[in-house]
Structures are given as structure tokens and as C-alpha cells.
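I hope you will forgive my troubling you with a question about protein structure. Could you please explain, in whatever detail you think fit, how the C-alpha cells follow from the sequence? Thank you for your consideration; the sequence and its C-alpha cells are set out here.
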Amino acid sequence: MNVRRPHISGIALAAVTAVGIGTLSACSSDSAAAGNTEKFDVVASFYPMAFLAEQIGGDHVKVTSLTEPGQEPHDLEISAQQRAQLEESDAALYLKGLQPSVDEAIAQAGLKTKIDAATLTKLEDHGDVEHEHAGEEAHTEEGHSEEEEHALDPHVWLDPVKYAEIAKGVAGAFEKADPDHAADYKKNADALVKKLDGLNTQFADGLRNTKSKVFFTNHAAFGYLAERYGLTQEAISGLDPESEPSPARIKELQEEAKADGVTTVFYETLVSDKTAKTLADDAGLKTDVLDPLEGITDKSEGDDYIAVMEANLTALKTALGAK
């Protein structure tokens, strides 16, 4: 559909620039066909962005994800073919700060509609994520230092409330970029926001009364979720899920597990469970999956965002001793 590129106001463009390129969804085999279709062609950076585009766009959009199912999003390097996809598409939806290769490719692409999800809600500094992209070149903006950019936690989609805010912003960008289908985009977004509101209620009710408020993970991805529901996330070895914890860190976490009634060490589906099992074995704890939803695979505890988040809630309720 990229033949028709309607004029977008500066405000709309800013909103669009906020969203960002998502990952390749399950239909990644169609990736080469992005652009030049009768539909509104959206390239998404990774799964949470692709899910939004599909839910809001419905039958009017063709969504292509840059991140393959099962691929770790942080490690993505954009190919020449994917750069060509961007140029042929009507819009890009991404989350600036999560995938530097994507940020660079979108910045260079000649797209009118660039939606950066990071601008559609408020990102926060959760401390232990500030070195996630250490060594990578920062894409700074006016008023933000390189350190400040790195200090913002990008895992905002794991908070259903903030994810709903992003959904509303994406819908607004779609409505302006493809006004012929604006009513449907708004209707679809309203339905999605209602589902996310329901998910938020499930989490709030399910985690309100628990024996412990502390959970261990090997990937510091759950800061927004923890903050939303009054929990404390302890990452074993910071942001690198493949690194092994030091003996001192193991000892520290063993003591904390006893003090705070921690029963479980969580790992995720897209990376090795070695780190989590190292701690669990040494501390006499159980292990379980807490999915950061960076991609859906056949190992996922559900086939979409809502289902996997509900599985996460069940795992948290069990681990924290929900009453």
C-alpha cells in the first residue's frame, strides 16, 4: 500500500516516530513481501510491537517482524534485505533503546511514519538495567546524556498499564497515517486496551496478598511489572542472562532468599537456564519460567501476549505464595 503516502503532521509524525520496529512474527516467511501490497504495511521490530500492530491493524495491515521467532531481540543485526523492507513499508513500529541495530536502520530509512513506542509512555530508570547496552554507541537526544539514555529500562511492555498506553498511541499514529481505516483502528485499539485492563486487574488481585514480595530472575526485565504490583525483582547477574553469578553474588542471594522467603529462581525461554539452576542448586531453591515475552516460540506458555502474561501470573502466584 506504500504507493499512497498521505501527508502526516508534525505531531502525528512525532507520535509515529515514538513506536518502533518490531520483531518478525510467526509469519516471518512473508518478510520478503513487506511493502507494495494493498494493505497498510507495517514493519515491527520484535514481538511486542508486532502484536500491537496486528491487534490494532486487524485486516487492514500486513505486519512483518524484524526479529525471528526464537531470536534474542537484543542480538539482532539488521540485514540489507530488512533495510530494503523498511524502505518499502508504510510504517515502522519499534522501541528505541532495546535494539541498537534497529534504531539505526529506522533512523536512516526514508519512511514518513516511524512510531517509537518509547515516546508513547514514560520510561523509567530501574537501576540494574543501566549497563544493558554498555559499550554500544548511544543514540542521544537533546537534553539527554548518553548515561541517561542507557539508564532507562526498555522492558515497558511487561506492565499491562504502560502497554495499553502504547497501544493507544500506536492507534493514533495508524489513524493519521491511514485515515481511510481510522474508525477500525480506534475500535480495535479500544478492544485491546480493554483486554489489557482486564489483565492488569488479574495481576493486581492475584499478587495483592502473597507470603513474599521478592522474586529472583536471571534477566532484569521485570522492573516495570514489579513496580506496578508492589514486588521486588532481584536479577542474578544483571542484564546478561548468559553470565555466571560470582560466588559473592550467590552467597548474597542465598541469604536474601532465606530472609525474604524466596522459593523460586526464574529463567526464560529464549536463553539458557544454566545461571538460574546454578543459584537454585546452591541455595536449595526451585526453578520456573517467567517469560519476558520478547518472542513467541513453541516453548512459550501460550500463543500470544495475553496468554503468556497469564502464565507468568500463575508462576508468580505460586512462587510468591499467593493466598
In short: Residues 3-34, 129-149 have pLDDT under 50 and may be disordered.
